[in-house]
Specification:
Helix content: 25-40%
Structural class: alpha/beta
Strand order of the largest sheet: 5-4-3-1-6
Number of strands: 21
């Protein structure tokens, strides 16, 4: 029998343990090279989401019929940004917005990709000629089927954008467009009705972010503009992405297949397209349909700005924040009912990439408030995006409550809510 000395056996065990530890360490997944940690990485994806069966369209309570056809396709566009392990996912979808569908969509996306809510901007372009999203059979079972397919396509698209992410440079440019017009038209009796008010406040800015690879290969042209998607009215039964979506399609057609153009609706609660609530796409005798005319006009301005923008490496980390603000609720007209002390929630998402700020608001923000946020933001350029991460309805400025009108009747917020929101949003941006 061969005897092994206990101390010799113990020394051998220690050696084996050290060798095993070194082997395990050697098989860890390789980290990204240190020189790439500070480089902005960007990925993109685009997927068509046009319904394959008739659906109920959004935006007009009087429209009960199902859609009868498709004028132009609907898309979901995704841009992912990453730097030093921090991510930002921007999603633009050609439909009314993520209202009752926001939380289940957010939860599914965040769970799949390990995102925080602050890293995700789920945005609708607010087209009133696109399906109403729903996770129930209301308003129609076909809408439920559409929404389920949409969720699956968004998960695939975000995964694709993350997969094809690579080093990127960023540039910002500003343009201007008259496509949007203030819609709070004063009548002879002093009342305010929806119409055309060319002299009312309007944010004409067309803000464009240009992304390209270090070798100059184009990636994306993100743009933000303040207008409702209401060039078509309740009599229209054709599916369409309306002015903003048509503008995005124009940019992509002109710039070629290497560029996607995620579009975001700015502070447009009281802004409609110059031609609004039309019954159909008019084409007789060579007439150019107004949604196409306005979308093309806006798209051309985006292209001009995009081509002039110069890209540079991005300095500074990506930073994000999310809050659900409890804002004062509007008192009911019936004086016997009191909502004193009651609040109405509003989701606010903010992000900073270099010297660019993003503000995502889950409401229909009136344009005066959006301009206040831009003026007070700590960044040189600020994307104010509405219909983002929820839908709390109209949020008007305090001074308009005495005038009345559709937005004031519709809102659930008290007059002081907007000022509180602006102050807290600017604080969130400053903290970044």
């Amino acid at each position: 029998m061969v005897m092994v000395h206990p101390r010799s056996w113990l020394n051998g065990f220690h050696v084996a343990l050290i060798v095993f530890a070194l082997a395990v360490t050697a098989w860890q997944p390789p980290a990204r090279p240190a020189e790439n940690e500070h480089v902005l990485r960007a990925g993109t994806a685009k997927t068509e989401i046009t319904p394959d069966q008739p659906v109920r369209l959004s935006g007009y309570a009087s429209r009960k019929q199902l859609s009868t056809g498709v004028h132009d396709p609907l898309y979901a566009r995704v841009v992912t940004l990453e730097r030093n392990g921090k991510r930002l996912v921007l999603v633009s979808v050609d439909f009314i917005g993520f209202y009752q569908t926001y939380e289940p969509m957010r939860d599914a996306i965040c769970a799949r990709f390990g995102l925080q809510p602050s890293e995700l901007f789920l945005c609708g372009t607010h087209s009133h000629s696109a399906p109403t999203p729903t996770f129930t059979s209301d308003p129609h079972p076909n809408n439920l089927a559409f929404t389920k397919r949409l969720q699956a396509k968004l998960l695939d698209a975000i995964g694709q954008a993350i997969k094809n992410s690579g080093p990127a440079r960023m540039g910002i440019g500003r343009g201007s467009s008259p496509v949007g017009c203030n819609r709070r038209a004063q009548q002879a009796d002093g009342s305010i009705r929806l119409g055309r008010n060319p002299y009312g406040p309007t944010d004409k800015e067309v803000l464009v972010m240009k992304l390209e690879r270090p070798d100059g290969a184009p990636i994306a042209a993100l743009f933000d503009y303040a207008t409702h998607g209401t060039s078509l009215g309740p009599k229209n039964l054709l599916i369409s992405s309306d002015v903003l979506g048509i503008a995005a399609q124009f940019v992509e057609k002109i710039e070629g297949p290497g560029v996607i153009a995620p579009v975001f609706a700015g502070a447009s609660g009281n802004i409609d397209p110059w031609y609004r609530v039309l019954p159909s796409f008019e084409t007789r005798n060579g007439w150019i349909p107004e949604p196409v005319l306005l979308g093309t006009m806006l798209g051309e301005e985006v292209v001009h700005v995009y081509r002039d923008a110069k890209t540079n490496p991005v300095h500074g980390d990506i930073k994000t924040d999310f809050a659900t603000l409890e804002l004062p609720a509007k008192q009911p007209e019936n004086e016997n009912e009191s909502r004193q002390g009651l609040t109405k929630p509003l989701n606010v998402t903010v992000a900073r990439v270099g010297d660019v700020c993003f503000v995502g608001l889950g409401c229909e923000l009136l344009t005066e408030i959006g301009m206040k946020i831009k003026a007070g933001a700590p960044c040189q350029h600020t994307f104010v995006i509405t219909h983002c991460n929820g839908g709390a309805g109209y949020l008007p400025p305090k001074e308009l409550y005495k005038e009345g009108g559709y937005e004031i009747r519709s809102t659930g917020f008290a007059p002081e809510a907007a000022d509180i929101m602006v102050k807290k949003t600017l604080q969130m941006l400053s903290n970044l």
